[in-house]
Automatic annotation (TrEMBL):
Matching PROSITE patterns: RIBOSOMAL_L9
GO CC, alphabetical: ribonucleoprotein complex; ribosome
Chain's gene name: rplI
Protein name: Large ribosomal subunit protein bL9
Molecular functions (GO terms): rRNA binding; structural constituent of ribosome
InterPro entries, sorted: Ribosomal_bL9 (IPR000244), Ribosomal_bL9/RNase_H1_N (IPR009027), Ribosomal_bL9_bac/chp (IPR020594), Ribosomal_bL9_C (IPR020069), Ribosomal_bL9_C_sf (IPR036791), Ribosomal_bL9_N (IPR020070), Ribosomal_bL9_N_sf (IPR036935)
Family, per entry: Belongs to the bacterial ribosomal protein bL9 family.
Alphabetized UniProt keyword annotations: Ribonucleoprotein, Ribosomal protein, RNA-binding, rRNA-binding
GO biological process: translation
Function according to Swiss-Prot or TrEMBL: Binds to the 23S rRNA.
Ribosomal protein L9 domain residues: 13-40
rRNA-binding among keywords: yes
Coiled coil location: none
Length: 189
């Protein structure tokens, strides 16, 4: 099916372009969301009449997104979750959790704006990309820890999954540290 894009869509095209997409994608996503029109003569004329309004609205959204991106870019958010000794979470942190975390700090972010390939399942510092507008992105850091104290320690660079951090002991010495050189000499003699 051919559609006329009403806004820029990543991996598809710019506003005003006529592109060919699969019927299901057009029927279930592009048309209901108001991101495209069917490519027929009546809609082409309708689009040309509204083009200036659409471009102005797109520019307005882009400037709003850039203002939010400037405030968000590089910011860090802390999520406290229960996890095992090895750092594996009991559950996971999804796009909805990240959006709720950022929204709680006073920013309005939708979960669809959070770029996350797979849910986060370990503690630590995770860089997340937020797509605020098709042309504007911001990167934030999500600090996932068991407690607020651990979150502070992670920011300083401590590895909270090592044996020393968990049990307060040094990691097991290597095998060659058990043997002295003079003992090896006695065995060879």
């Amino acid at each position: 099916m051919e559609v006329i894009l009403l806004e820029r869509i990543s991996r598809l095209g710019q506003m005003g372009e006529t592109v060919k997409v699969k019927d299901g994608f057009a029927r279930n996503f592009l048309l209901p969301q108001g991101k495209a029109l069917r490519a027929n003569e009546a809609n082409k004329k309708k689009f040309e009449g509204q083009r200036a309004q659409l471009e102005a609205r797109n520019l307005e959204r882009k400037t709003e997104a850039q203002a939010i991106a400037e405030k968000l870019d590089g910011k860090s958010f802390v999520a406290v979750r229960s996890a095992g000794e090895t750092g594996q979470l009991y559950g996971s942190v999804s796009t909805r959790d990240i959006a709720d975390l950022i929204t709680a700090e006073g920013f309005s972010i939708n979960r669809n704006q959070v770029e996350l390939n797979t849910p986060i399942k370990t503690i630590g510092l995770h860089k997340i990309v937020l797509t605020l507008h098709p042309e504007v992105e911001a990167t934030v850091t999500i600090n996932i820890a068991r407690t607020a104290d651990e979150a502070e320690r992670q920011v300083k660079g401590e590895d909270l999954t090592s044996a020393e951090a968990i049990y307060g002991i040094e990691e097991a010495p290597l095998a060659d540290e058990f043997f002295d050189e003079d003992e090896e000499g006695e065995e060879n003699a």
